[in-house]
Structures are given as C-alpha cells and as structure tokens.
C-alpha cells in the first residue's frame, strides 16, 4: 500500500507542477503582451513628440538636445542619399529624396520642380511609355512626368 501512496503523491506533485507551469506560461504571455503595448506606445509618443518638434514647438533642454541629434542624423541621411544619387548619375528630389533621371525637370514621385538641380551624366534607362501631356518618355513606376510635371495615372 505504501508503494501506491507514494506513486499517488508523485503523480499529484507532477500534476501540480504542470498546472503551475501552465499558469506561469499564461502569465508570461500576458506580461509579453503588456510589454509590447508599452513599446508601441513609446513609439507613438516619440512620433507625436517629433511631429511637434518639427512644427516648431520647444521643450526642455534634454528633449531639445535629442532633437538636435535627430536633425543631425536626418542631415547625414540626406547627404548619403545625395552621394548615392551622384554616383548613380541620378538627380535627388529635395522634397522626397526620390532618385530621378539626371535630365528630369520634375520629380517622378512628388512632382517637385527639379530645374535648380543638376547632374553630370544621365543613367541608362529602358523606357516603354510616354507622358500623355508632352510625349516625353516615362517609366511605368513614375507618378509624375519628369519633363512637364504632369501627374501620371
């Protein structure tokens, strides 16, 4: 009888441990969900703060110092995009950073006038379609004609 009592005790203990492990697993899952929620809220908070800073709102010294770092990183990114555009013979849109053919007058993504921009050489492109307004060659992915600025469908 002692054998069966010990076996029952072992089985009961194992069941309690398994049940406890399942509960801990459920709690860890809930914990992870709440931690992810906080991460998402921090990102939203930061995005909102950045939009306010971009709009000119001032904050305390710590936030303004971080904002200066963001602006410096943005400037570095713009510079790197410009270097890449120069090396590929493209013209970089100052508004949206889209790479355009060197002879473009307007950005193919946002329609910004690019006439002030210059580049030394035009990239080789295979063009299959033309702008319905001016007849200039355009790429299928262009949103605006690079020669007349016409919005493409």
Distance between the termini: 86 Å
The whole-number mean of residue pLDDT values reads 84
Shape category: elongated
Describe the sheet with the most strands. 2 strands, antiparallel
Over the alpha carbons, how many angstroms does the gyration radius reach? 30 Å
Unreliable spans are 117-127
What percent of residues are in strands?
Answer: 5-15%
In helices, the fraction of residues equals 40-55%
Order of helices and strands: HHEEEE
Judged by helices, strands and strand pairing, the structural class is mainly alpha
Query: Strand order of the main beta sheet, please?
Result: 1-2
What's the β-strand tally? 4
Number of helices: 2
Précis, in short:
By secondary structure, this protein is mostly helical.
């Amino acid at each position: 009888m002692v054998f069966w009592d010990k076996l029952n005790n072992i089985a009961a203990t194992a069941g309690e441990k398994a049940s406890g492990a399942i509960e801990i697993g459920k709690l860890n899952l809930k914990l992870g969900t709440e931690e992810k929620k906080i991460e998402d809220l921090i990102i939203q908070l930061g995005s909102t703060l950045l939009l306010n800073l971009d709009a000119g709102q001032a904050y305390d010294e710590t936030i303004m110092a971080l904002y200066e770092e963001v602006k410096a990183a943005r400037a570095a990114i713009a510079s790197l995009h410009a270097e890449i555009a120069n090396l590929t013979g493209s013209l970089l849109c100052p508004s949206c950073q889209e790479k355009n053919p060197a002879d473009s007058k307007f950005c193919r993504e946002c329609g910004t006038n690019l006439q002030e921009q210059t580049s030394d050489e035009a990239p080789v492109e295979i063009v299959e379609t033309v702008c319905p307004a001016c007849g200039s060659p355009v790429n299928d992915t262009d949103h605006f004609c690079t020669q007349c600025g016409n919005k493409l469908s």
